[in-house]
Amino acid sequence: MTDAQAHAKKMKVEQAAHRKRVANASVPGRGLILVYTGDGKGKSSSAFGVISRALGWGHKVGVVQFIKGTWKTGERQFFSRFEDQLDWHTMGEGFTWDTQDLDRDIAAAEAAFDKARAILASGDYDLVVLDEINIALRYDYLSEAAVIEGLEARSARTSVILTGRNAKPGICEYADLVSEMRAVKHPFDAGIKAVRGIDY
């Protein structure tokens, strides 16, 4: 048997196994919960990629940003072109080390989650991104139980992405998908500032 024939035989076996898995899989009948976490870059960027995919299918999308402030970013400027499909709410006040005010941070997180609850339960959205909500959970600005309760109350139509490092174990257990970005190398560690169009 030649290498080409052996390869073709191997791929046929893999194809059959994959087709069997697809045939046995079921349509969930509800929106999915996805968590992007870990200490590496790319969590919010991955969520924005899924937003692009959803918009491409004509879906309605909502974004609630929990920590990030109102500075100008490339993704916000790009997605502003889809005002009929995407509602974007930046409700954080910036990095937690900038505010330095626990009560204010808790109030901002609670206001953001109140907005998120309304969006999740409305039945108007196919996808909702709760950007950096894991950070709000990490610092106990929000309770894990309250967030899961809000996710439970979402419309059956609505899938949700939660981003931010240090996702709580209960959130990960509740989710359908958990992806962890691992830091291997970062330009900031070499003294390189954030780059427009790459980092923001």
What does this structure look like?
The chain is α/β, with parallel strands linked by helices. The chain has a single domain (31-190), classed as 3-Layer(aba) Sandwich (Rossmann fold). It is built from eight helices and six strands; from the N terminus they run αβαβαβααβααβαβ. Helix 3 links the parallel strand 2 and strand 3 (86-90). The chain is globular and about 70 Å long. The model has no long low-confidence stretch (mean pLDDT 92).
In short:
The chain is 44% helix and 14% strand. It is of the alpha/beta class and 200 residues long. It has one domain (31-190): 3-Layer(aba) Sandwich (Rossmann fold), CATH 3.40.50.300.
